[in-house]
């Protein structure tokens, strides 16, 4: 793994406040040529008590943010809409908007370049589970054309991983600790199902071992996914293991 990413992960883990985590993230991104960062998160309607509330962190120039609001771009910002539904990262900037035939988005990007020198960038949707997050992490550079293409080739993988890590740490720091612990607490049956899943058993085999219906196993695993904020059984298992919830 990239040494700079490992160093950033260590600094994020050591951060004890949202402000400290954001500062470390901004510094880490600046080291790979990101000029501005914007992180937005809105919780789903089914969020449990104690879950993080709406978050918005940005280093965008005040001149641009004021123009963005005054021009009503929030209603026509295609990057914002796509982050609410997409899973994979995607490029942003005038040239990409024009390639998609989105003139409103292209106009917004052109004005961002003229007013604040903002070039192309990368939008990283944040969706730990289907419908879970409405928002993303946007990383903006001063680059265009071939220069931005070269930046993507050199830094996109690290940038995406760092964005997910920073967003996760910020959300952890925004949670109410007691409520978060309660949310992650697995029932004995949920834990048993995940343990057998870790052993490589399918739902029907887990059901045989536990003496319950296959549908009941599926229900326990679905509840475990919900508590752990995971989109798949594999993600739930990985998160449970990383949190030490399946330790003997």
TrEMBL record:
Keywords: DNA-binding, Transcription, Transcription regulation
Domain HTH luxR-type, chain residue ranges per copy: 179-244
Keyword Transport set for record: no
Gene3D superfamilies, A to Z: Transcription factor LuxR-like, autoinducer-binding domain (3.30.450.80), Winged helix-like DNA-binding domain superfamily/Winged helix DNA-binding domain (1.10.10.10)
GO-annotated molecular function: DNA binding
KW Metal-binding (keyword) present: no
Family matches, as CDD domains: LuxR_C_like
InterPro entries: Sig_transdc_resp-reg_C-effctor, TF_LuxR_autoind-bd_dom, TF_LuxR_autoind-bd_dom_sf, Tscrpt_reg_LuxR_C, WH-like_DNA-bd_sf
GO biological process: regulation of DNA-templated transcription
Coiled-coil regions, chain positions: none
PANTHER family: DNA-BINDING TRANSCRIPTIONAL ACTIVATOR DEVR_DOSR (PTHR44688)
Protein name: LuxR family transcriptional regulator
Organism, scientific name: Caldovatus sediminis
């Amino acid at each position: 793994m990239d040494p700079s990413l490992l160093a950033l992960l260590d600094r994020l883990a050591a951060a004890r406040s949202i402000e400290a985590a954001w500062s470390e993230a901004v510094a880490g991104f600046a080291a790979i040529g990101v000029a501005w960062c914007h992180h937005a998160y809105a919780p789903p309607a089914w969020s449990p008590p104690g879950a993080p509330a709406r978050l918005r962190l940005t280093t965008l120039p005040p001149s641009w943010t004021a123009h963005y609001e005054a021009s009503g771009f929030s209603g026509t910002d295609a990057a914002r809409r796509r982050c609410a539904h997409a899973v994979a990262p995607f490029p942003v900037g005038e040239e990409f908007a024009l390639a998609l035939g989105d003139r409103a988005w292209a106009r917004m990007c052109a004005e961002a370049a003229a007013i604040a020198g903002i070039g192309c960038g990368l939008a990283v949707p944040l969706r730990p589970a289907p419908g879970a997050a409405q928002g993303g992490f946007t990383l903006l550079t001063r680059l265009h054309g071939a220069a931005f293409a070269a930046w993507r080739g050199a830094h996109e993988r690290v940038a995406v991983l760092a964005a997910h890590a920073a967003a996760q740490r910020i959300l952890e720091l925004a949670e109410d600790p007691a409520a978060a612990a309660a949310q992650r607490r697995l029932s004995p049956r949920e834990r048993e199902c995940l343990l057998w899943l870790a052993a490589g058993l399918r739902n029907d085999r887990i059901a045989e071992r536990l003496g319950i219906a296959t549908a009941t196993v599926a229900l326990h695993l679905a509840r475990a996914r919900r508590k752990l904020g995971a989109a798949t059984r594999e993600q739930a298992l990985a998160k449970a293991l990383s949190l030490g919830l399946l330790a003997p």
